[in-house]
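Exercise: predict the fold of this chain.
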Amino acid sequence: MGDPQLRELRSALTTASDLATALTSAPTRQGADQLVDVLRQALTAASSLGAETGPTGCALHPHGAVDPLHGDPEDPLPPGYGKCLLCNDRRRRADAHHPHVRPHARPHPRWRRRLNA
């Protein structure tokens, strides 16, 4: 959140306050439209204050490492993967080892007897 962004927001809010105070009991369409434009500028300025999420765009790891495969046309990331390497690594590990499947499942001993008999 930088000083120019705060200055822009404060300026837009001050202007909107001045315009709202100057409105009469029967405002004109031009006065109302002018107030709406200034309020939109204030909203845009306020929205830009929280836009700094870092290079990853991740809420959990805003300044983490960017996944080197992000944007790679030859080896694209699966749908739903973002730019954050830490989150993508967690997703890859979860996809590789499904929690309900044992990685080295061996047949039950009774099954061997049935096959050999």
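Check your answer against the key: The mean pLDDT is 80.
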